[in-house]
Every structure is written in structure tokens, then in C-alpha cells.
TrEMBL record, chain A:
Protein name per the record: Lrp/AsnC family transcriptional regulator
Pfam families (alphabetical): AsnC_trans_reg, HTH_24
Classification via SMART domains: HTH_ASNC
Protein keywords: DNA-binding, Transcription, Transcription regulation
Gene3D superfamilies reported in the protein's UniProt record: 3.30.70.920, Winged helix-like DNA-binding domain superfamily/Winged helix DNA-binding domain
All copies of domain HTH asnC-type, residue ranges: 1-61
A GO MF label: DNA binding
Superkingdom: Archaea
Automatic annotation (TrEMBL), chain B:
Domain Aminotransferase class I/classII large: 33-379
Pfam family, one: Aminotran_1_2
CDD domains named among the record's database cross-references: AAT_like
Gene3D superfamilies linked: Aspartate Aminotransferase, domain 1, Type I PLP-dependent aspartate aminotransferase-like (Major domain)
Protein name according to UniProt: Aminotransferase
Annotated organism of origin: Halomarina ordinaria
Keyword hit for Chaperone: no
Record EC number: 2.6.1.-
Length: 162, 385
């Protein structure tokens, strides 16, 4: 694996890891790591860095819904055109075109269930190409971005063993 | 024998002191917030599919003994896997024995192959069980220290220096616990030549074979003339992070494996059935997890080596297992390890706990999550300054 790819791997595990620590783990110079990160950002491979937050633990209510969205296309309007409109809304946290029974899968976030419902009915459903939406409110999050939200597994090893 | 103490412990057992590691374990256990670099087992958990296979076997009610030698299917899978990975060709019928951890296999070999008074050369520093195992089998231990300047590789010179020409068996472990040293084909060839010339049987503990970071692992049994005089030990503990499931195996000529099985069938009967189910799934389906764990260990290894270098602590480039073996910055390793534990709550094990050659060194295990590892290295740095 080349350095850039390995750097990407380590950033995916923990984006806050220090450049010097990446360099030590890969056995390369710090400058090489910094250059790799710059390149990844410059060419759009790395689009951003965010914390994975358990909002329940923070004591804040974040209402999120998973929205299935069906659309009809015509000669002038393709998926990208519709997506181009939907991504503009701050409430839309993720937007993906998917295979299967519906076309777009959205994650919508708002302050309350009514705020999310209102957003879907007033901003998504009225888009002319949208034929149907189905909203699933997220009731509990068990795993986000590969990180389990449970109490986890304590290290039950003895502190010193042969 | 006094009247109020009717039980007399055998001389054999009394002659074996408790493990040197034990004292540090007790010291570390008394403290809170210890970051331990003293752990000789993976920090990963066994792959979920392997655990699931164990659970499902219990749900199906598979709680009986298996064949003494282990489930036939598992022996076949082990033989096929060892052939594919290391070119070791063994017949699952009579050259493979599934045991309760590689440790049991090693004990069986001593009991099956050592006669009272036989000399067993033990390459050191080494895992702490070999010497007591030989003593329990009434053998004589010949300690063969390897040297820091040889990067703890076993050499014919090291063997000759203690008169290992006259030994009956040789125990070696590469990749090595506690040093992290590995041996390549050329280096093994020299030891193999010595063993052939002086008619030594080789017991090769290769439990860390999957954790080899530079180049491929070579088994000494694949060298010319060695298959017939070598018993290889391996298992699932390290590669698949399955230490607590206690599953290992031995590979060797039918005569040796048959003799070991004779002891095994009267003492263990068969390795834990649940663990055998987990192992079969591990070997068949969990190769990707092993690759990923190895990648993680390798990054930590390079991180730890880099940090020691920056601190000016001398540490040879360990290329296997999950240990590095730096030179102790103080003359008294025990005092250093205790002071470090006391001042910074970082536990590591003095090298002399692993026998001759380990003096003046410390075993540092990097089988610890990266964040803890970094914390530990920061604290060590602060301590040595």
C-alpha cells in the first residue's frame, strides 16, 4: 500500500491523529505524511473531518429520520438535477441514490419530529419530480460510522501475562 | 513430613519457582489506571464469526468429547492451512494433534520425548513455560542465551558456547516472545545444520508465525532433513486473538505425534469442543481479520520503535510477535520497572523474567490500543527525562 493510501486508512480510524504519530506508525517522514494529507484534501478525496457524536450522551435531542424518496425522470431532468436541489437544504445530512424499491435515501435532521415532518412535506414532497416519500424516524442509534454506541467491551485481560 | 502438614509437595514442583512475571502482575494489580505494556496476549477480540460458530455449536448441543486428536475436519483444515501458508505438509490422520493451547502441546512433547536426565537446550530469552516443562518431565535444562548484538537470533555459536552439541532436544520460538526477533531461512539453516550434525530433536514454537512483519515466516521444519526431527507448535491464540479459548496444535512425524497423543488421551482426552468449532470457522473464514490485526500491530510496532529511538533508548528492530525488547536505561531493570510503575503507572516486564540473555532489557508489549500505547510512551518519555 502506498503512503497516501495508508494515511487515508489511519485518518478513517481517527481523523485527529497527529501527523507525527501517523509518520511513526508508517515509518515515513512527517513531511511525507503532511504532503499526503494535503494531496488528499486538494484532490477532493478527503471532503472533511467530523466527530462521531452520541447526542444522547450529550443530553441533546437530535431528531433524525431516514427518508425514502421516489422520483420520476423526464428528458430534461435526471437524478443529478433532483439531487442538486435536495443537497442544498441544511436539514439533509446525507443524500444517496440507491438501488431497489425507491430512488433516493436521505437522512434528515431537525429539532423535533414535527420540524422533520414539516421539512419533508414542505420541501421534499413538493419537488415536482418527487412522487412519494416514506419517513422513518430513527429511534435509537447502535452504531455510527463504524463505531458502536454500546457500553463496549472492557479490556478484561490480566495486566501482566507471560 | 510434619503431622499437621500431611501433604508434601513433590521436589520437582518445589524446585520450580513461581514465574518472575507474577510479582509484576501483583504490583500492577494493586494500582489504578495502569497502562500495561506487560500483556502477552492480543488486545483484539476473537473474530465475531469464530465466536458465533462457538455459540452455534453450543446451541446445537455439541458438548461431547471429540476424537482424542481433535475433530477430523479441523485437523484437515489445519493441515491444509499450514501447507498453503508455510509449505508444511502433514497428514491429518496421524501427524496433527489438536491441543488445549500450544502450551499443552509443548508440555506433551516434553513428557512424550524426554527421558529422565535427557538434556533439553532452551534458546533464551524465552516464553516462561519451557524450563518448568522440562523440569516437570525430569529433563535437564541447558539454557542457550541469545545475544542482543545478534538481535536475539539463535546461532550455532550460541549453541556451541554452552555445549549444546550434547543435548537431546532443542526448544526454540521464532517469532520470539519476549524479544520480537524473527529468523529468516538462512539463519534457520545454520541451526538446522547444527541439529542434524549433533542429532538434536527440535521443538519449534511458532505460535507467532502469523505476526511476522518483514518478509514471510519460515518454519525450520521445511528445511532439508528437518521434518523428521522437528515438532512444530502453533495455535489460534495469537493469530486469531483466541487466547481464552485455549486451542493449539502440534505437527510432527507420526511417531512423535502418536506418543504425544498417548499422554493427551489419558490427561486431556480432547481439546475443548466449543473452541474446536470456533477454530474451524476461524481458519476457514477469518483470514481477513488476521491480515487487519497484523496491519494494526505493525503500525504500533513502528510507532513504539520510533518513540524509543527519539527517547534515545536502544532498541533493536523487532520484526515479529507483538513485543519490542529495548535496553533498560538503568542498570537495575527490576528497579526501573518498579519505579516506572510507581511514578507513571506504566507496566512492563523486566527481561530477566524470560531467562538468560534477557538481562538489561525490558519486554514491551504493543498489544494495546493505539491511544493507550501513545499515553504509555508519553509517560515513559517523561519518566526517563
Amino acid at each position: 500500500m502506498d503512503t497516501q493510501r495508508e494515511v487515508l486508512d489511519l485518518l478513517c480510524e481517527n481523523a485527529r491523529v497527529e501527523t507525527a504519530d501517523i509518520a511513526r506508525q508508517l515509518g515515513v517522514a512527517e513531511e511525507e505524511v503532511a504532503a499526503a494529507v494535503d494531496a488528499l484534501e486538494a484532490d477532493g478525496s478527503v471532503r472533511g473531518y467530523q466527530a462521531v457524536v452520541d447526542w444522547e450522551a450529550v443530553g441533546e435531542e437530535r431528531v433524525r429520520a431516514f427518508v425514502e424518496c421516489n422520483v420520476t425522470l423526464d428528458r430534461e431532468t435526471g437524478y443529478d438535477d433532483i439531487a442538486g436541489r435536495l443537497v442544498k437544504f441544511d436539514e439533509v445530512r446525507t443524500l444517496r441514490l440507491v438501488s431497489g424499491d425507491y430512488d433516493f435515501a436521505l437522512t434528515v435532521e431537525g429539532e423535533s419530529m414535527s420540524a422533520v415532518s414539516r421539512f419533508v412535506s414542505e420541501q421534499v414532497a413538493p419537488v415536482p419530480e418527487v412522487t412519494q416519500t416514506v419517513t422513518h424516524f430513527i429511534m435509537e442509534s447502535y452504531k455510527e460510522a463504524g463505531i458502536e454506541f454500546g457500553d463496549g467491551h472492557d479490556d478484561d485481560r490480566l495486566s501482566v501475562t507471560p | 513430613m510434619s503431622e499437621d502438614e500431611p501433604i508434601t509437595v513433590s521436589e520437582r514442583v518445589r524446585s520450580v519457582p513461581p514465574s518472575g512475571i507474577r510479582r509484576f502482575f501483583e504490583l500492577a494489580e494493586e494500582m489504578d489506571d495502569v497502562v500495561s505494556l506487560g500483556v502477552g496476549e492480543p488486545d483484539f477480540t476473537a473474530p465475531w464469526r469464530a465466536r458465533q460458530a462457538a455459540i452455534e455449536s453450543l446451541e446445537r448441543g455439541q458438548t461431547s468429547y471429540t476424537a482424542n486428536r481433535g475433530k477430523r475436519e479441523l485437523r484437515e483444515a489445519i493441515a491444509a492451512d499450514c501447507e498453503a501458508r508455510y509449505g508444511l505438509d502433514y497428514d491429518p490422520d496421524d501427524e496433527v494433534l489438536v491441543t488445549a493451547g500450544a502450551s499443552e502441546a509443548i508440555d506433551l512433547a516434553f513428557r512424550a520425548l524426554v527421558d529422565p536426565g535427557d538434556t533439553v537446550a532452551v534458546a533464551q530469552p524465552s516464553y516462561v513455560s519451557y524450563v518448568p516443562g522440562v523440569v516437570f518431565a525430569d529433563g535437564e535444562v541447558l539454557s542457550v542465551p541469545t545475544r542482543a548484538e545478534d538481535e536475539f537470533v539463535l546461532t550455532p555459536e550460541a549453541l556451541s558456547s554452552v555445549g549444546a552439541e550434547g543435548a537431546d532436544l532443542l526448544v526454540m520460538c521464532y517469532p520470539n516472545n519476549p524479544t520480537g526477533a524473527t529468523m529468516d531461512r538462512e539463519q534457520l539453516a545454520e541451526v538446522a545444520a547444527f541439529a542434524r550434525e549433533h542429532d538434536l530433536v527440535v521443538l519449534s514454537d511458532e505460535i507467532y508465525s502469523e505476526l511476522t512483519y518483514e518478509g514471510e515466516h519460515t518454519s525450520i521444519a521445511t528445511l532439508p532433513g528437518m521434518r523428521e526431527r522437528t515438532v512444530v507448535f502453533n495455535g489460534f491464540s495469537k493469530a486469531y486473538a483466541m487466547t481464552g479459548l485455549r486451542l493449539g496444535y502440534a505437527l510432527g512425524p507420526a511417531s512423535a505425534i502418536g506418543a504425544m497423543n498417548r499422554v493427551h488421551q489419558y490427561t486431556m482426552l480432547s481439546a475443548p469442543t466449543t473452541a474446536q468449532h470456533a477454530a474451524l470457522t476461524a481458519i476457514e473464514e477469518c483470514g481477513d481479520e488476521v491480515v487487519e490485526m497484523r496491519r494494526q500491530y505493525d503500525r504500533r510496532r513502528q510507532f513504539v520503535l520510533a518513540r524509543f529511538e527519539e527517547m534515545g533508548i536502544d532498541c533493536f528492530e523487532a520484526t515479529g510477535a507483538f513485543y519490542v525488547f529495548p535496553e533498560c536505561p538503568w542498570d537495575d531493570t527490576d528497579a526501573f520497572a518498579e519505579a516506572l510503575l510507581d511514578a507513571e503507572s506504566v507496566a512492563m516486564v523486566p527481561g530477566d523474567a524470560f531467562g538468560a540473555g534477557g538481562e538489561d532489557h525490558l519486554r514491551v508489549s504493543y498489544a494495546t490500543g493505539f491511544d493507550d500505547l501513545r499515553t504509555a510512551m508519553d509517560r515513559i518519555e517523561r519518566f526517563v527525562e
